[in-house]
Amino acid sequence: MLYLTDDDVSGALQWGPLIRAMESALTAFSSGRVDQPPRNWLTVEEGSRYWGVMPAVGDEAMGTKLVSFYPRNASIGVPTVMSTVVLFRPETGEPLAVLDARALTAMRTAAVSAAVTRRLSSPASRVLALLGSGVQAASHLDALRHVRPFEEIRVWSRTPEHAERFAARHGARAMDAESAVRGADVIVTATPAEAPILKGAWLKPGAHVNAIGAPMPTWRELDDAAMANVVVVESREAVLQESGDLILSKARIHAEAGELFAGSKAIAATETTIFKSVGMAIEDIAAAKLAFDIVSGARLSRP
Q1: What is the pLDDT of residue 80?
Q2: From CA 103, how far away is CA 135, in angstroms rounded?
Q3: Mean pLDDT of 218-241
Q4: Contact 139, 292 (CB under 8 A)
Q5: 129 - beta bridge partners?
Q6: CA–CA separation, 42 and 54 (whole Å)
Q7: Residue 79 pLDDT class (50, 70, 90 cuts)
Q8: Does residue 241 surpass a pLDDT of 90?
Q9: 42-58 pLDDT, tens per residue?
């Protein structure tokens, strides 16, 4: 059984194949070809320490992700999200690998957003706004540049110094949240916000939002006006259990991403769209299988 470090995983995964793998995984999920219960969160300490278990079985991969979410770690310089994936062979039940899933989580989340952004945003999109300046903001910037040729990057953070450092590192402009969002073609919200940080009144018609933060049923990043737009999710069941943005706004879900990829649902290019992502086990397992195949194949081919 292989052990894949964070460097092994990040070195193996490339945006093009990973984005395609996420499209396939979500299509299989929405087509009923994935067995995956809702994520089971254990509250170690309300508001600060959570531990989750995420199993999934698909046609080509089977496994479990174990994840800790400790928002207060940000104040002590420790990652807020840490995780491990255990991968099995579905035909025999044999364990194949244990993977450090920090980079995997960041990359598969951004790859899912990129796949949806390619489907829903205007091909003419040139301005990207990032609300949040952490790991997910950086991975989304990398992944979204793979599907749209952005010419202007804007960034906001609740800690202005963080936004300034991110801007200097990535060639972005730091600004307040409203200024970042107004006129932007694609927006990413990647924060642990407990109350809305993005107002629907700021969105230009036809904009696309990837909302990936606020991962608890009482937290939210988007206000009711934003959630009144056309909403796409990974899993109807998952967001109605986990996403405060959906639960508290009572927004109507237009489609699952897998339904868009399969062609069973469509959205007009002129619509303002919201993709609310909570993350799913099958995404982690599909990404882990892709990394495992690449790393194990490379090791077998060595003389």
Answers
A1: 85
A2: 9
A3: 97
A4: no
A5: 154, 187
A6: 12
A7: confident
A8: yes
A9: 999 988 899 999 999 99
- The domains found in the chain, sorted by start residue, are 2-104+282-301 (3.30.1780.10), 121-279 (3.40.50.720)
How far apart CA 174 and CA 189 sit, in angstroms, is: 15
Average the pLDDT over each of 139-143, 205-209, 299-303 and give the range with the smallest value. Answer: 299-303
> Degrees (nearest 5) of the Cα angle 263, 269, 271?
110
How many angstroms separate the CA atoms of 209 and 189, rounded? 8
**Residue with the two structure tokens 């290019």:** 269
